[in-house]
Amino acid sequence: MNFDQARFSRDDEYEPLLSEKDSTTVEVDSEGVLPDDLTRDELTLPALSEPQLARHYTRLSQMNYSVELGPYPLGSCTMKYNPSFTEDVAADPNAGVHPDRSDRTIQGTLGLLHGLQEYLADIGGMDAVTLQPPAGAAGEFTGILVAKAYHESRGDDRSEIIIPSSAHGTNFASAAMAGYDVVELPSDDDGRVDMEALDAAISEETAALMLTNPNTLGLFERDIVDIAEMVHDAGGLLYYDGANLNALLGRARPGDMGFDIMHYNVHKTFATPHGGGGPGAGPVGVVEELAEFLPSPMVRETAAGYEQYEPESSIGKVHGFAGNWLVLVKAYAYIARLGDAGLADASAKAVLNANYLASQIDLEVPYGPFHHEFAATSGDRDAADVAKRMLDYGVHPPTTKWPELVSQAMLTEPTEVEDKASLDDLAHAFNAAYADSDEALETAPTKTSARRIDQVSAARNPRLSWQALGDDE
Amino acid sequence: MTAGNGRRAGSPYAPHTDADEEAMLDAVGADSAEELFDIPDEVRFDGEFGVSGTDEQELRNVMADLFSRNEELTEFLGRGHHAHYVPALVDDLSRRSEFLTSYTQYQPEIAQGFLQVLFEYQSMLVELTGLPVANCSMYDAATALAEAALLANRLRRGASGHRVLVPEHLHEGRLGVLENYLDGAEMEIGEYPMDDGAVDVEVLADLVDDETVMVYAETPTVRGVIEERLADIGDLAHDNDALFCLGSDLVALALLEEPASVGADVVVGEAGALGLGTAYGMGLGIFATREEYLRQVPGRLVGVSEDSADMRAFTLTLQTREQHIRKERATSNICTNQAWVALRTAMHMAWLGPDRLVGLAERAVTDARDLAARLDELSGVKAPLYDRHHFREFVVRTDQPAPAITNDLAGRGFAVHALDDHHLQVCITDANADAADGLVAAFEEVI
Q1: Under an 8 A CB cutoff, do A317 and B327 touch?
Q2: Tell me, what's the ipTM?
Q3: Judgement on whether residues A50 and A93 belong to the same structural domain of the protein
């Protein structure tokens, strides 16, 4: 497949900034509106017509790669196709209400939230679900706060969260934000939890163990039942990071494995668009014993209809209102569209795709059997360079140099939405880039809108606004 | 492979043909995809979720029916969460799949378009706040406020205390989130009182001390009051080596005193009032601060660099602050953010331009003033309650029980919030202003 990304440029710039197209200063003279000393003097912003703006943003969109343009196999990100109809559903004017509306007047909104709580509880094997956390990391933070509230309610003061070294960086940061010391757990030779190290790490200080399953190498933690028993025997809780749930739909549920708390990344597993970095949503499910600690409000069904309520020992709020509503609507619609058979098939095809792709690439995959994602290694070639070269073949490369357990890792998650031909293109991109000359790798990419970007100078001399560009241009 | 209605039994978004599936299984040496799952029997799930799967067309009808159960009320609701008219351009262009279905710009060479939009968003915040550093989004105003407090605490390590002072009039959602974020840092929250709806600066002066790491104030407040003594509040904070954090929103910032000019060290607040709509409380958190705190900023930053062709190019930068590099020592745990909302907000701001943006802000003052005056003419009604300038919204005191009034107004097609037994809050923007006459008429009927 040949690929050239759109590139609008003039002189030494690509598409000019809005501020370079126009910069208009208006005097703020609000006589009769507010006293002068309460207002600013002037405001400078671009003043452009709608046709100019339409062209600006359309050009910029063409200088941006996306799932609808081609494979986007970022490991642990689950970049699957986002069904078009879910956008229309979320845009229904009746769906957009203000959070101060009384329950009685928004039975549709509450009905959807209640329905999604139930869907997610069933899918995760959990007893209660809050939809409030606005992202996966916010879900982790919420879940750890729930664990903390649980321990405190028992007069049990614990100080540590155990996290495998291969876990997502957010796990460590979320535990630290909740005030816990992080105990990092090494992996065993097979890439899974080192049971001896776990035994040594668990103590009466253990508030929780955070685990991703399948883990970030795509491997199922086969000892999960023993792990759960060890953590529970020590009075700790087991937390499930839902980033990789797309591997398990309909085949295994965190609740059945002994997890007490989990978050769902609905923008991953349930196909809501990633929007260039967000919004996502990170609902949190818990077992019955922890339900009383969930954030407020929750939604329940009564004889009179749906109502919001505050759980008995709620930790309070983790979002100003009720989370990322538009994302939750799309996730609900996706689950209802697919149903049991569709969800189970999504996982089957996601796992088949990862395994097929791995079988077609020349790079070694040191750990297995993996599920929906695998960590290949580019060996003595720099994974970041191989990734840059892959761009020239019209695909988005995998996550690079992570997890650290695999040297020069290329963590690859094709998801279920790629067909065989697309996976063959992706494999070709892997293999061609991997075999290309050092020079080709170092000068890549050449087909993208911008050529290789100097990260070091961006960080050394931060210029973070168009106002900061004046001096040196 | 097909079920009823011509529907595949599997996922409609998994495109495999039977022949492809067979060839792929051959390549991996498996008879079925099930063989590829390495899940111990003891934790295998063989139950059902009981979700049947639905045709797209049928499902859209089901969803439309569900949402039609929401009563169609004209909302005069605010309390820190506002909706303005969103132009069609925003819906149209933000839904371009190149934007919508991309992710964080880990490969900047292929993501220049989104990076430039985020850079332009940051630049607009810089203009509105007067502060040189703005990140490319937080979840909402509440989490942005909480992150500001954590930043203040990191900067003031070694100070004798860890207290954040917040106003008596603060949205319960913002307070609740702040409490949860501060718990882990063993910080505490102190509340200072309001006087006639604005900060009681004299009492605040007694409360700020060397245990204070941050003083937070808002303009407009959650009750719509424009704060008149911001510079005094900033001075109080600085005299005690505390940060001054100001909460506002993008429309208000286009008209009111520039935060930098009143000494704000951090500006937080809600940006989703432009570009998003009510969206049941979904938001977009503003976070802007001074250059000297750059390396303590939470969240993602887009910066300028050059590519190997010596062209100006954009990239995420200063990532060593972030969780994927720094783990438990990161400035925040935030990863997925609100980038697409920031894109919509930037588009909306660009569509307005400076003239219409300032005009929109002026209307927020005059429309609120006019509506309050009309309600004040009704017997048994005082509006606004506070003798202050207001922005978009104001408190109304009613002799009649306020909850009964809101019920009766709902029966006439209007949503208004009751604060307590005798106080309502009314919010007017360009999105509901054409219904103001109807609201006043309904009000007259129900009191």
Answers
A1: no
A2: 0.98
A3: no
